[in-house]
């Protein structure tokens, strides 16, 4: 089949054929203005697609990194050919490594679901449908990247508590420690939502700066990402912790999952973001915010809490580890070379 392939490429907004490749679970984000798109055709039929970006000095990846995002393939052979072609083009442009899938930065969609897939009956984990905000993809996509010479660069997981979000015995100790240090925790002020967004931005760029493959983002772009979520916000599930000076010390952003239902009612709380300023990480503030979210879940009749899309090497994975288990895994892939 690969002998009949034709490759097409361009810059900026891709043609309609780019979207015609999509299958169930595929990435529907539109490439950014600075993306270079690539398409593989079998005759007149588009069978694979991707877009590439060049980014400098990602955290932990100095120099020029090539990014492959917006990946979709109706045929594995075509997908692998396209991944090889994109990797070669990025290397020719001076990239020291190629990471994927990543749609321009870690602020956008990135990673692939690896195991278990939502409908994987061979898994011993309790079956869990995809949650709102979780990336999904056809199950063979990780094999495409491996066949194109990529290896796993970073691993992530989503963890769930199915124990009725039982009260944590150490929660009272953390509460007392926070009060002693002058920490105040309140729900987000929806009436001052725009102002709160820019406070969240300032803390996020501090808290996430050491994350693997992090790149900077401006305040307006951050606000534009979160502004559409205002309508779905339950203020009791967005907690802001402020220090004695009123500055934001940490926050937790969670929402009730509308996709997972039992007997017609939602049963999962999704902890999307947990961020603590580097100056406040020694008092267990992150765990305290999680304690508060679990308590809020109990009040709302929610019996499961999902800690979503956590990098396995982060300390946040340890929060609640004794009452939670991983139910989905994800990976980001890399191709690198040594020309020296």
Q: Strands, helices and their partners?
A:
Elements: E1 5-11, H1 16-20, E2 36-42, E3 45-58, E4 61-73, H2 76-92, E5 97-100, E6 112-113, H3 141-147, E7 151-161, H4 171-180, E8 184-187, H5 193-207, H6 219-226, E9 238-242, E10 248-256, E11 261-262, E12 265-266, E13 268-276, H7 285-299, E14 304-311, E15 325-336
Parallel strand pairs: 4-5, 13-14
Antiparallel strand pairs: 1-2, 2-3, 3-4, 5-15, 6-15, 7-14, 7-15, 8-9, 9-10, 10-13, 11-12
Helix pairs in contact: 2-3, 4-7, 5-6
Summed up:
The protein is of the alpha+beta class and 340 residues long. The chain is 23% helix and 32% strand. It has two domains: 2-155 and 332-336, Aminopeptidase (3-Layer(aba) Sandwich); 165-302, Aminopeptidase, CATH 3.40.630.
Polypeptide structure, described:
With about 350 residues, the protein is of the alpha+beta class. It is built from seven helices and 15 strands. Strands 1, 2, 3, 4, 5, 6, 7, 8, 9, 10, 13, 14 and 15 form a 13-stranded mixed sheet that branches. Strand 13, helix 7 and strand 14 (about 305-310) form a beta-alpha-beta unit. The relative contact order is 0.16.
CATH topology of the largest domain: Aminopeptidase
What's the name of the CATH homologous superfamily of the largest domain? Gcn5-related N-acetyltransferase (GNAT)
User: Architecture of the largest domain in CATH?
Assistant: 3-Layer(aba) Sandwich
Q: What structural class do you assign from the helix and strand content?
A: alpha+beta
CA gyration radius, whole angstroms = 21 Å
User: pLDDT under 50 segments (min length 5)?
Assistant: none
In total, the number of domains comes to: 2
Q: Provide the succession of SSEs.
A: EHEEEHEEHEHEHHEEEEEHEE
Task: Figure out the total of helices.
Answer: 7
* Estimated share of beta-strand residues: 25-35%
Mean pLDDT equals 90
Number of strands: 15
Q: What is the makeup of the main sheet?
A: 13 strands, mixed
Q: Roughly how much helix do the residues carry, as a percent range?
A: 10-25%
Distance between the termini: 36 Å
Provide the CATH top-level class of the largest domain: Alpha Beta
Categorize the overall geometry: globular
